[in-house]
Structure formats: C-alpha cells, structure tokens
Specification:
- It is a single chain.
- By secondary structure, the chain is α/β, with parallel strands linked by helices.
- 38% of the residues lie in helices and 14% in strands.
- It has ten helices and eight strands.
- An eight-stranded parallel beta barrel has the order 1-2-3-4-5-6-7-8, surrounded by nine helices.
- The chain is globular, with a radius of gyration of 17 Å.
Length: 297
C-alpha cells in the first residue's frame, strides 16, 4: 500500500476501504477532495466537473445533488453506471453525498425538500453499494434540515449496507439551530462507525476556531479516525489568498483531507483555487506529480 500522493491511478483504484483510509493517513495532510454539483452543466460545457477538478489537483471526487435512484449527471452517457464511467474518466475514488434529513427539527430558515434519491436510506445506500462508490458523505446541503442526531443514526445503518468509507458531519448549519460540531458529537459519530469526521474549515463558519479543530483532530486520531476540513460556505470562489490561508491554517491543526466546495463556475470550485489549495498543502513537486501523472499508469 502506497501513500495516496505517491500512488498511480491503478494502485489507487485497487484499494479497498481500509487500504484507502491508510493511504490517505500516510499522506500526512496532503489529500484534496473536490465536491462537484454533478447535475449542472460544467464550466467547460462538454466534460464533467470531475474531470476539471482532477486536472487541477483533486484526489477524491464527491458528487453533490445527485439522485442515485434517478441519476441525471451532466456529460455522462451511462446514467445507470455513472460511478464506473466517472472512474474511467478520472481514475480517482468517487463518492456521493447522501443527506440524513430529520422529519422534524428546529430550523433557522425555510426547509428545502429534496428527492428520496438524495436522502440517506437503506435503499439509496444499497444503490451506492451496487454502483461501486468508494465512499459516502453523510452531510446536509443548506436548508435541508439535516441534524447531527440523524447523522449518527444513519451512520449505524450505513455500516450494514455499504462497504466503502463513511464520511460524516456538517460543513455549516444545514438550516438547523444546533452546534455544527462538538467533541461530544464526534465521539458519537466515531462510536457509530464513521471513518472520517467532516468539520467546517477554520475560517469558514463563525466561532469555529483553531483550538476547536485541533482538539477534534487529536481526539479523532486517538480513536482511529481521520478528519476532513471543508470549505463549504462559498469561499471556494474567493481569491487565492483566502484559499491559501485556509489551507495552511487547517493543515496546522492536523486535518487529513482538505475539502473544497462546489460554489464556482458550473458547480465546481474555481480551477485556480483547487490548484492553489494543492500547492499550499503539498508544494509544487507533489502538485505536478498528481496533475501530470497519466491516469493510465
């Protein structure tokens, strides 16, 4: 098993969930995940957002707003086998957001209804397993009413029906009036079976600071988990200086993966910001290695 940032595409795609987790861990905070709105026309217009993100340094691709029961992804020929088609195009691990929506909760804004194919359920989890997704992200888009309590419940169910990595947590409030993340919540997620804890990146939501994140990272690592910081507050379309600062601040705190969100041209972060994030957390040498290395190796 090689560390992710030194592995060829064929080696990466041959990894099972446990090996992929160890490969990410061995990369010492130098792995990038790009979240894409896969159903929207891309910035270029005839290729997927996944291809754009991969070309500028993304290591993992997370698909947002996909109805896994009735998929309608942009620039994909075989909708019923979209995971494998994307893997063929980018030769990177592919994951999908599923949302653990609570039936009733205290909302700070109007609740947005989403389709059943976007919600986390036994049916959608089984479909992700059939499709061959490498990971699932249990989180909430703005206004969907996803709660930490519901995420915990869904993690337990996910372990029964899905063999890939489980990422769990919130990037922002999802419209719910509760703390986004606490150490107590992290403990519940890990006990339920989450492999990777998702947290807001320091500098993206008010009041979540470096001390908070460092404590969460240290606790998670001591209990066998990994941590992914997320830029999910539209700052992925900010200037490169903002991305650079977020990248370094969160690396100092010890996160294993840095997520960059989908609020950019056509549902993917500005390409220069993905590239800047890569240079900031792993330097030019490893950036060139990841973007230039043939997917056929």
């Amino acid at each position: 098993m090689k560390r992710f940032i030194s592995a060829n595409a064929s080696e990466i795609l041959a990894m099972d969930a446990k090996e992929l987790k160890e490969s990410i861990k061995a990369s010492e905070g130098r792995v990038i995940l790009s979240e894409n709105v896969a159903v929207r026309d891309s910035f270029v217009g005839d290729i997927t957002n996944a291809e754009i993100a991969r070309a500028f340094g993304a290591d993992l691709i997370l698909l947002n707003a996909v109805d896994v029961l009735e998929p309608k992804l942009f620039a994909i020929k075989d909708q019923k086998d979209f995971i494998n088609e994307l893997k063929t195009l980018v030769k990177r691990p592919i994951g999908v957001n599923l949302e653990p929506v609570a039936d009733s909760t205290s909302m700070m804004e109007e609740k947005i209804d989403i389709s059943e194919g976007r919600k986390a359920s036994e049916t959608t989890l089984r479909e992700l397993e059939r499709l061959g997704a490498d990971f699932v992200c249990l989180t909430g888009n703005p206004g969907t009413g996803v709660t930490n309590e519901q995420i915990e419940k869904v993690i337990k169910n996910t372990k029964k029906h899905f063999s890939g990595l489980i990422i769990a947590g919130k990037m922002h409030s999802s419209g719910v009036d509760e703390p986004i993340i606490t150490k107590e919540v992290v403990k519940k997620f890990l006990d339920a079976g989450s492999d990777i804890i998702l947290v807001p990146a320091v500098g993206t939501v008010p009041g979540f600071n470096s001390q908070n994140l460092t404590e969460i990272v240290q606790y998670t690592h001591s209990h066998g988990g990994l941590v992914m910081s997320s830029i999910g507050t539209s700052q992925e379309s900010s200037g490169v200086e903002t991305i650079r600062r977020i990248a370094i601040d969160n690396k100092i705190c010890g996160v294993d993966i840095q997520h960059i969100g989908d609020s950019g041209y056509g549902g993917v972060a500005n390409y220069e910001n993905i590239f800047e994030l890569s240079k900031a957390i792993r330097g030019v040498r490893h950036t060139v290695s990841m973007v230039a290395r043939s997917i056929n190796r």
